Amino acid sequence: MPHSELILYIVKLILGGMAAFSAILLWNKTGESSWMCIIAGMVISYAGTVYSLLVEMGILSVDVLRLGSLPLTSLIFAVVPPVFFILGFGIMIANSNSGK
What we know:
This protein is mainly alpha-helical. It has helices at residues 3-29, 33-56, 72-98; strands at residues 66-67, 70-71.
């Protein structure tokens, strides 16, 4: 792994870890389903970053489960966080429209 790529992963891990930690703290404070979805998306996104680093370093392999030619775990980490974000924002929009 090139030095610049390692620095990028370290920055992603530090900032993503801070965001995920803040999201977990918020998770304890809120009970709203919209925020729960956004927090879940953030935590899964951070897990995807950690997973990508472990694959890049050769600690984990992506060849175990595949959906066609795509690694299933990589596909899940790429698709699930935006789905949670969309769901959370959709719930927020629906709640704001129902209040009028």
